[in-house]
Amino acid sequence: MQNNGTLYGTLYIVATPIGNLGDMVPRAIEILQKVDIIAAEDTRHSGNLLQHFCINTPTTAYHDHSDDARTQSLLERLASGQSIALISDAGTPLISDPGYRLVHEARSLGIRVEPIPGACAVITALCASGLPSDRFSFEGFLPAKNTNREQVLAAVKEDPRTLVFYESPHRILASLESVITILGGDRYIVLARELTKTFETFIAGSAQEVLDTLNTDANQKRGEMVLMIKGFETVKIREISQDVERILLLLCEELPLKKAAALAAKITGLKKNALYQLGLELTQPNH
Ligand code: SAM
Asked: Are 207 and 185 in contact (CB under 8 A)?
């Protein structure tokens, strides 16, 4: 890319496996081999992965605590035409991992930033959880302190979307206890453990049931995990009260549905349209 007469290099954001090395995508290997330098969250940790795929590209450390000088030095390399690949310890960089500052600054300077997609624990967990995936909210890690954790949970208590959190083995029990306190023990949850690895497990049930499982089987507390919580279910009109159905049916015996729904709305304070739909379902189930 050309900018102010300079030929800029490209910053590649490269996903790496979250456990199973077979999930490394060919394009990631190709890019990691061809760039001038790899910026890694932990160069020693990534060394094993790079060795496995015969990647001899030089590495440099980059994490969110890196000082401005480190970010500037990477930006200068890019500005001078060098290409850089950013990787994290596992999965997709920037997703609860370092890189935001670098990508933000690179983009604001007009440097090309190219993603190389691959494994990401949020998506891997969600797609096999059986929970609604049409809309979801990724919330990162829950705070370590009880009060902060409970505040975060209280803020999402009535969110109708599936909630996805990253978790660690030493906090999972405390987090489940907070879920029970704030969202209730009967909220349906799925805990995905050790994804893509030998002991991959999905534990599903009410928050209380999942907590009981972890308390009775210490192995289920081990490893990396993603906690998914079913979204808040708005009470359907059917569930509000069986009395509503009874009133509507009685009125329907004497009146056309439209009038019955209007009268039932006055009696119950519920919406006329919703009662009309309910009346249709009750009187003409195959409409
Ligand atoms: N950037 C990574 C990604 O794309 O998934 C996530 C990095 S974050 C620091 C690490 C957290 O991701 C772990 O604590 C765990 O919650 C989740 N995680 C990563 N690998 C996992 C795996 N194999 N199984 C379950 N959860 C995993």
From this structure: yes
Distance between terminal CA atoms of the chain?
A: 60
CB 225 within 8 A of CB 193: yes
Dump strand ranges (E) for 62-155: 84-87, 112-116, 136-141
- CA–CA dist 270, 278 (Å, integer): 11
Q: Is the dihedral of CA 103, 104, 110, 115 positive or negative?
A: positive
Q: What is the pLDDT of residues 127-153, one digit of tens each?
A: 999 999 999 999 999 999 999 999 999
CATH 3.30.950.10 is right for the domain spanning 122-229: yes
Residue recorded with tokens 């006329």 = 272
User: Does 166 contact ligand 1 (Cβ within 6 A)?
Assistant: yes
- The rounded distance, in Å, linking the Cα atoms of 52 and 249 is 70
201 lines ligand 1 (CB under 6 A): no
Going from the Cα of 40 to the center of ligand 1, the distance in angstroms, rounded, reads 16
Q: How far apart are CA 191 and CA 225, in angstroms?
A: 7
pTM attached to this predicted model: 0.83
- Higher confidence at residue 270 or residue 99? 99
Q: Where are the domains of the chain?
A: 2-119, 122-229, 237-282
- 2-119 domain in CATH 3.40.50.80? no
Grouping H, G, I as helix, E, B as strand and the rest as coil, residue 87 is: strand
Distance 255 CA to ligand 1 centre (A): 59
Smallest CA separation from ligand 1 atom 8, residue: 96
What is the rounded distance in angstroms from the CA atom of residue 147 to the CA atom of residue 254? Answer: 56
Which residue's CA is minimally distant from atom 11 of ligand 1? Answer: 166
Nearest CA to ligand 1 atom 26: 225
Q: How many Å lie between the centroid of ligand 1 and the Cα of residue 246?
A: 50
Residue 224, ligand 1, Cβ within 6 A = yes
